[in-house]
Amino acid sequence: MNENIIAIDGPAGSGKSTIAREIANEIHFRYLDTGAYYRAVTLFLLEIQKTSGNPVFSEWIKIQDVLSLLGKIKIKCEFSESDENLIFLNGRNISREIRTPEVTEEIKYIASIREIRNFVNTELRNIGFSHRLIMDGRDIGTEVFPDARFKFFVTASIDARAKRRYEELIQKGFSVQLEQIRKDMENRDKSDIERLVAPLKKAPDAILIDTSGVSKDVVKQMILSELRK
User: Fold this and answer.
1) What is the pTM of this model?
2) Spatial contact of 184 and 40, defined as CB atoms under 8 Å apart
3) Of 67, 71, 135, 164, which has the highest C-beta tally within 10 A?
4) Distance CA 105, CA 99 (A)
5) CA-closest candidate to residue 30, choices 124, 139, 146
6) Hey, what domains does the chain have and what are their CATH numbers?
């Protein structure tokens, strides 16, 4: 059993990231947003694709030598004084750039590619060797750290999740539409669940938590209660 990793999986907008951050602070673990690594790869590929003359990202990525491109990527995560994740791509701070709706829309294509998942998983395991971490993602408890002592699967209704993501993006200054976010989230769910490589699913030994209509503090206490056992 790996006592240094707490895995929190679940679909987009379920509230797992916010909850993981607060719990990490309370129990003196580091919080790691594993999705930021996939976002960093997506941003890197988008920037190359825009100079290629091919306007369709999903078609462009299919014909690329992915392993060759991954060899040009160096992702580093640093923890700020407030324990926020600062994500660097080849030495450049991209912490805000990876949160744009464009990256969110395209990430589903690269997250389904086995070579990219293997690349990200290796990065995550490497940082997991040197820190006590709470990691949230889609397959932390099933693929990345299946030996984690504590595993949780956090979910919520699509309406609750879309509203959360909408409010989060508005607060960050992005101009977005709630209905479009809901549609994008439904598409992402379908892609995550149906992909052949590391699909989104609950680990058999994970504790299921539905956050629909439940306050953040209640969910946090539910998880803390399990950890204290």
Assistant:
1) 0.88
2) no
3) 135
4) 10
5) 124
6) 2-228 (3.40.50.300)
Measure Cα distances from 222 to 16, 94, 167, 215 in Å: 13, 33, 24, 11
* 3-state SS, residue 213: coil
Integer-rounded Cα radius of gyration of the chain: 17
| Nearest residue to 176 via CA among 63, 155, 168 | 168
Residue 3 in tokens: 């006592």
Helices (H), 28-157: 35-49, 57-62, 66-70, 101-110, 114-128
Q: What are the residue ranges in the chain where pLDDT is below 50?
A: none
Residue 133 identity (one-letter amino acid): L
pLDDT digits (tens, 9 = 90+) for 125-135: 999 988 999 99
User: Mapping DSSP to helix (H, G, I), strand (E, B) and coil, where does residue 87 land?
Assistant: strand
